[in-house]
Every structure is written in C-alpha cells, then in structure tokens.
Amino acid sequence: MINFKRIILIVLLFLIPLKLILSQESSQREKPIILISYQMGITSIPQEGEEEDYRQGFNPFPVVPSHTVKTVNGEIFVYLYRNLFLGFSLDYCMNTRITVIDPSDDDSFQFNTLSFYNYYLSLRYKYKLFGISSYFSIGVGRTLTNGAESETITTNKGYSLLLEKIDSYSQMLYVSNFGLELPLGESIYLTGKISYLRLNMDKDSYLQFLGGIKFIILKGREVQHE
Amino acid sequence: MKTLNLCGKKKRLVPLKLIFFLTIYLMTNLLFSSEAGIKKLYFKYSNNKISYLGEKKTIEPPINIRRKIGDWEIVFEGDNHKIIYKTRIFDPTLYSFDLDAPYTSYKAGEKQFKEIIFSVEIPTSIQYKRIFFYELLHPFSIDEEISPVKSNYFKKNISLLTIKEKKIYSPKLKSIDSIKIFSHQKFINNGNDKRRIDIVFIPVQYSESELGNFHKTINFLLYDVCWGGWEDKRTFFDASPMKEFKKLFNFHYLDIINFPMDWQEEIACSGDSCKEWLDNLIKKFIPVPPDIYVFVVKTFQWSSLSSYWSIIIRDDSCGNVLLRAFSRSSIGGGLYNEFDTTDNCKDEKAKEIISRKNITVFTDKDLIPWKHWILDSTPLPTPNTLTYKNTVGAFEGGYDYKCYYYRPQEKCVLHGDLWDFCKVCREYFTLTLLDNWFDPYVSAKSNVPSQGMIIYPSDTPFLNFFITVDEGLLSMLDTPNIVWLLDDKPIEGTDGKRGISINTSLLKAGKHTVKVAIVGEVVGTTGFVRKYHDNHYYYTFPEFEIGKGKFKRQR
Q1: What residues of chain B lie within 8 A of the CB of A161, using their CB?
Q2: Which of B435, B470, B493 delimits the end of a domain?
Q3: H-type alpha helices, B334-483
Q4: B331 in Cβ contact with B325 (< 8 Å)
Q5: What's the gap in Å between the CA of B500 and the closest CA on chain A?
Q6: What's the pLDDT at A81?
C-alpha cells in the first residue's frame, strides 16, 4: 500500500534544500556551512545465540540467524573549523521477517524482528582520498529499540509458543563512519558510507551500508588567511 | 321429560327421533373412542427405501427373529407435534442364532438382506401426517440391548413417507394437567448428582392424603424386613453388591398427587421422549435429570417391571423386588429374569436363542457366558439337588420358562428368591456399576490449569497429580495396584503411588493426558468378581497442553 503522506514528506524534504541551493548565488568559491543528506541502505545484524544454548521448554529456538534490515538515514552537518564538521544523524532500521529453527526437531516459526532508531552526534573530518572527496567520522549517541506486545503463536509443527512482551529500551551507541562524496553539481553530491555501530549493553556490533544524496544548503565565502 | 304446551297440544321440546339418533351416535363414538388400543403399521424396506403397506398384514414376518440389524428412530409428524419411537429392526433372513458371529458384522451399510417387512406399533390415538425414518448408526455390542440410546449415535435419514391418512386426535390431557408436585426430598445423599446414580420415587395415582402411605412404602422397600425373614432382618443395602456400592446412589422422592397411570399414553410419548417429559416436569426440583424413575403404583399385574430408565413397582412389594427391578434396569446392566413360571415347553415359537449375562440355552460349557465360574466337576445341565445348592452350573428354568433356558445358580434374587444375588448376577451387576459409575470411588486433584491455558515449563516447572481411592473398591479387586499413565504409556517408577509429580520441562510440547488406572491383575481368586471386562478402571485427568517455550524477540 502506498503511503502518500510519507511520499509527500520525502518530496518536501528534498525540495527545501533544492530551493535553498537554487536561491544562492554561486559565482564565487564558497565553503559549505550547513549540509544535509538523505541515505538509504541496509544494516547487517549478526547471528545471536548458539545451538548449544538449546533447552527444551525454556529456550527452544536458541539461534536467531544473521540478517539485514532496511535502513533510512538523515543527517545534518555544520561547518566547525577547517575540515571539521559537527553533525547529527538519525537512522531508522525497519523490521524484517525471519525464520528460526528448533535444532531438536527442526520445528520452525517466523517472527518480525524489532525495529529500532539510532541517533547520534558525530565529528566529521573531510579529506581527499586519491582525489575523491571522502570523510571519516566518529560519534556517540543512543539506540532505541521498539517494544512489542506478547503473543501466542503456533509453530509449523503445531506447538504453542509464547512471544514474550518486550518494552521499548534504549542503550548507548558508538559509531564510526567512512564515506565518499561524488559531486553531481555545485551543491549536490552523491554520497555513500560504511558505518560501524557498537552497542554498549548487548556488546553487539553492526555494519551499515548507506547511499544517497547530500545537499549544501548554506555556503560561506572562503576566508583567506595571511 | 320436560314439555311445552303449545296451541293446546303437547309437543316435545326435542323430538324423540333426534334423541334416539343422538344416543346411537354417542354410544358408537364412545364404543370406538374408548378403544385406546394399539395398531400396527406395516412397512417394507428394500433397496434403502421404505414403503408403507398399510395396517393389514400382507406378509407375515417371522416372529422369532432376534437378530437386530439396526436401531431406528421413527418420527410421526403431525401438524403441531412430533412423536418419536426408537425401535429395532430385525433381520428376517436369519432364523438361527450364531454365537460366533456377533452383531458387528451387520453394521449399517453391510446389510445382507434384500427386503424386510416390519411393523411399528403405535397407539391408535396418534395423529400423523408424515413419517420419518432414521437409522441410528453406531457400533453394536451384545450388551447394549437395554442401554439407553447414547449421545454419540448419529442419524442417517433413510426415507420420508407422506401418508394421507389422518386420524382425529383428541388427547385427554385433563389428568396430566391435574398433576401437582408439592415437595422434593433427597433422603439418601451421596453428593454430586452428575456423578451418582440418582433414583427418584414417583407416587402414581396417589391423592394428597395418601402421600403418607407412599413414604411408608419407600421406607419399607429400602429399610424394612421383607427378605431373610423376621429373624434375619436386612435392608436393601445389606445385599451385595448394593452394600459395596452404597455411596454410588442418591435416592429422592417427590410428593406428587394425581400422577396418572396412563401418563405415557396421554402425552403420546415413548422411550426417551417420556423420560425427557418427566425430566422436564421435575426440573424445578431435581435439575440434573435422574437416572432411574421408580413409579410406585397401588395396583399392578406384576410386582415390578423395568426398562432401562424406569421401574414400576407395586406398593406392597418387598425390598428384594426393588433390587430385582434394579438389576434388570440399566444400573444392573439389564440382567434377565430367572423366573421359571411357564411350563409350556412346547411353545417353541416364543423362545429366543440367547446366551448372555445370566441366561443361556446352551449346556455346553464353552458356550455358557459364565463358564469361568463353572468347575470341571460340575455336571451340565446341573441337577437341582442339595449337592449343588451353592454351586454355579446350568440349572434348568429361567427367562419365564421351566425348560429350555438355564440359569447359573439354584437361588438368586432374579429367580424370585428372597436371598442375595447368585454369584454370576452379582458379578455382572458389580462390573456394570464399576464400568459405568467408577468416578465416585476415586477423587482426584491436580494443579493442571483450566482448559485452554498453555503450560510453560518456566512458569510451571512441575505438575502434580493426586488420587484418593476408596478402600472398598480396592478390596473388590485382586492384587490391586495403581498405575499412572502419561499419554497411555505407563510412567516409570510410579506404580502404587497415590500422587505423582511430572517435570514439565521433560515433556514434549503439545497436548498430554494423565490417567490413573486401578488395576486388578489376578483373575480368579476373589469370590466377588472372577471375570473382568476390562481390568483397568481409569480416572482421566483434564487434558493439558505444554507450550514449546517462550521466545524473546530481537532486532
């Protein structure tokens, strides 16, 4: 089902920076002051649990296999000094349906993983790598996992299984990114990045691959230092 | 006669001719309407269709047929009523009774006959427009003859007949309407009506002033001397197996006046429909339908008459008459009477070839149902002499005849004797009670949650089951033991225990049932029961479901 509200919002979010870009005079060489980017991609979630953890009646599905979840991202960065930028990033990692298996009898069932948000502040350093504009950043923030109501389901072999209730919870998040930018116009870039996300509580780490468009929405004249 | 004087001439108010014809009409009406008889409707069943032959016998069906081929329900439908008959159709192609070929080979759909003629007897007063035939399909068993129609029977519509015949139906409901129920008394109360045999005494044709006599009769039937003589005073409950099974019974009586003798005719019911009518009538006083109705009557041709749900007993009968009636009802498994009053041994046509429960026509030991009681040294047939006074054998006389039929012992309540049941009848009675009414002897409890709730080992690590078994029951079985079963498989190490605990984490996910079986392993040593139908008496705990477990969803 098409969500028109969401489409309109996305279009508007793209139009605003475009408007700002077009309204600027760009005859002189200028430095970007404020940048925003929209990216999409995937977040890779590693396997959780081992078969050895199986316990009849208590932990019948010990392994949640590795999987990827679709991710959308939005960022805003502000020029700080020389090649340094300070930014705020927000990821939304959607849920996905995965199958888990009971190793004792090959019984299985499918469930929707929990969706989650990442939001963090990061410090970005821009540099040229083999002539290509690239950047490296580190950040810190939080990750918020959405909760779910308890539910009794029937496994493929007809047994009852209780999906426990989970309250929303958040934990610390440490992020490092490496990204590339390819200019499409004076103020528009094609961008892509790889992120490494480390969760404090779960001791889990994810890899994230995102790609999208970056806009410069505010430029400043370059100051010549004597 | 009252006359009027008109124009100086005496003229009768009603002409004499009219009076004469009216009288003739009334007398004719009276003569025919008072014939509250039974009429027979004849039908032909062939190729799965039924056709109506009329009320006259066109073909004489053999009358000595005793092999049933189906239980049928026949519904006579009128404008505003339905009358339901449950009847049996017998196979006319078979004249001999083959003991080794039980009824099961004649299940519906496997009928081995082409055509049968059968009749249905109904009161002449019944009005009907259409007749429905349903075949009640169920697995047959030999001992089912007197059992009530079970709920798991299902119907197969055979055919529908529309008969144009229409009779004038004028029910005399006046006497039924005058029935009044004053009160209800549960004078022997052993608890939950649903799990006990509930027997209700109903006074028939008693007026309000006569109810005292009704109470005396009940007291006399159950507690006063009548059998064993004055010097050996015993009550109804002193006779085995009533003594051992006393706690199975709840006895009630209802103070009813003007209950008519011919109530079944008046409401035009038969079999189960009569019981339903009665159940409904007394529902206000006894909400759970009773198992047996005992109609206490003031005059009756015989001292007692039993069907599977009712007993008619004369008010001057003794306790042993009531006991005999019980043993012939569903409680006792429908034992046969062992009277040997008719000495017309040449009346071959009226005889049946039967060999079951307590009556047989055979003297070959292998064909006698109670052969496990007969010693090899006992002659068959057994002479009725002092030597064999307490011996089980095959004594000639029973089932109303002096000859042809054989009974197990010389004396028995079923034979009209004042003493106890013979060993064979007592065994049959006991086993019927055990088979059908076992629950009161075992009380059980467990922590199994209410139905529909799923058990997760993390919440309920153990399920506990306990039983309390009545010692009286255990004393009736040889080498009694208690065996616990999980999903019909014995649980190791639990034999003889009165309580067990099951670790739920060791159970596979899914539905499970725990049963406890009371087992009497050795056959033939007790004097009470020598042959078990099924030597396991089960108590089944409510079914429970073990969940696969719990699962914590993740990102």
Answers
A1: 547-551
A2: B435
A3: 423-436, 471-476
A4: no
A5: 20
A6: 84
pLDDT at residue A18, rounded to an integer = 57
Residue A22 touches partner B, C-beta closer than 8 Å: no
Judge whether B517 lies within some domain.
yes
Residue A112, in any domain of the structure: yes
Cβ-nearest to B454 among A56, A111, A152: A152
**B499 Cβ contact list (under 8 Å, min separation 6):** B464, B465, B466, B467
Q: Domain range holding B194?
A: 174-328
Chain A: residue whose CA lies nearest to B506: A56
Domain that holds residue A122: 32-219
Residue A202's domain is classified under what CATH number? 2.40.160.20
Q: How confident is the model at residue A26 (pLDDT cuts 50, 70, 90)?
A: very low
Query: Is residue B340 domain-resident?
Result: no
Q: Cβ-count burial of B538 within 10 angstroms (0-12 exposed, 13-18 middle, 19+ buried)? A: middle
Count of structural domains, chain A: 1
Mean pLDDT of A153-166: 92
Strand partners, B68: B90
Q: What pLDDT score was predicted for residue A95?
A: 93
Domain stop point among B435, B455, B490: B435
Strands A188-199 and A169-183: antiparallel
Question: If residue B17 lies in a helix (H) or strand (E), which one and from where to where?
Answer: helix B16-33
Cβ partners under 8 Å of residue B53, min gap 6:
B42, B43, B44, B59, B117
Q: How many domains, in total, are found in chain B?
A: 5
* Across A197-222, average pLDDT: 84
| Crossing angle of helices B211-223 and B319-328, rounded to 10° | 80
Asked whether residue B343 is domain-assigned, the answer is no
Same domain, B406 and B529: no
Q: Do A102 and B545 touch (CB under 8 A)?
A: no
- Dmax (CA) of chain A: 79
Strands of the sheet with B249-257, listed across from one edge: B180-188, B249-257, B197-203, B292-297, B310-314, B304-306
> Position of tokens 């003991």?
B99
Same domain, B307 and B179: yes
Beta-carbon separation of B551 and A111 below 8 A: yes
pLDDT band at A123 (very low <50, low <70, confident <90, very high): very high
CATH number of the CATH domain containing B519: 2.60.40
Residue B95 makes CB contacts below 8 A (sequence gap 6+) with B62, B64, B65
Please list every residue in chain A whose beta carbon sits closer than 8 Å to the beta carbon of residue B510.
158-159
All residues of chain B having their beta carbon less than 8 Å from the beta carbon of residue A102 are: 548
What pLDDT is attached to residue B304?
A: 67
Residues of chain B with pLDDT under 70: 1-40, 42-51, 55-175, 193-195, 225-234, 301-304, 347-351, 419, 435-440, 472-473, 475-479, 520-536
Cα distance from N-terminal residue to C-terminal residue, chain B: 110
- Neighboring chain B residues of A163 at a CB cutoff of 8 Å: 550-551, 553
pLDDT of residue B190: 82
Instruction: Please indicate, yes or no, if residue A152 is contained in any of the structural domains.
Output: yes
Instruction: Give the model's pLDDT for residue A201.
Output: 63
Percent of chain A having pLDDT more than 70? 84
Q: What is the mean pLDDT of residues A109-115?
A: 94
> Is B167 within the bounds of a domain?
no
Q: Report the C-alpha gap between B111 and B113 in whole angstroms.
A: 6
How is residue A119 annotated by DSSP?
A: E
Q: Residue B546: its pLDDT value, please?
A: 93
